[in-house]
Write a structure and sequence with these properties.
Blueprint lengths: L7 H10 L14 H19 L6 E7 L13 E6 L13 E4 L2 E4 L11 E7 L8 H19 L10 H19 L7 H13 L3
Length: about 200
């Protein structure tokens, strides 16, 4: 039997199994619990990705002004900063920030610009575009949240805080392998780890 990457449907079915519900054959089953599970899965997927990982960062992405002079960000962009890989954007005369779906020029107090801008972005990916370690962590975290919200008894869950913690560490290790350095040397990931420990998300 060939092993494949986990799918969003499989993740929802894992969540349903935690409350004793039978698996569904599609994400459009109409089952209220399945719809709730998918909503929670989507929320956790967004939350985890918003931190920014190697798999959902776009480095040195050029955005050109539209016909109105606006710098429109992709619809799935959750964070954009002037790229640190382009020397001119380290100049203090350039200070663009994300406001909604556009970049705003704080120096000249306008959305209208004349030149392209190069940014580093964090974007949201569909569940099935994520690496398997991220899918597993998201599924476990969403499953625990779903089970506790619907049933409310932690003893009924086959997923524990230890499962979530293990999946989180697997995700960090996967990220470290991709970046080919110690994950704790990465400031953004260190912030995630420290915040997670502080907030006791496990």
């Amino acid at each position: 039997h060939e092993m494949n990457l986990s799918t969003k449907l499989e993740a929802v079915n894992v969540m349903l199994s935690l409350i004793g519900e039978a698996a569904v054959n599609s994400l459009s089953s109409g089952l209220v619990d399945a719809e709730m599970a998918e909503t929670i899965l989507d929320n956790i997927t967004r939350s985890v990705q918003s931190t920014g990982w190697s798999f959902n960062e776009e480095i040195a992405y050029t955005i050109s002004p539209d016909s109105n002079g606006h710098l429109n960000l992709p619809a799935n962009c959750v964070r954009a900063d002037l790229s640190q890989t382009v020397s001119k954007y380290r100049d203090s005369r350039f200070d663009y920030v994300q406001r909604g779906s556009k970049l705003y020029d704080k120096v000249n107090h306008t959305y209208v610009v004349s030149d392209p801008v190069v940014v580093d972005m964090v974007v949201l990916l569909d569940f099935e575009e994520l690496p398997e370690a991220a899918r597993r962590f998201i599924t476990i975290r969403a499953g625990r949240s779903f089970q506790e919200r619907v049933v409310g008894s932690e003893t009924l869950s086959s997923l524990t805080a230890d499962d979530e913690n293990t999946a989180w560490l697997d995700l960090l290790n996967s990220e470290s392998d991709v970046n080919d350095h110690n994950i704790f040397d990465d400031s953004s990931v260190s912030r995630v780890v420290n915040r997670s420990i502080t907030n006791r998300i496990f």
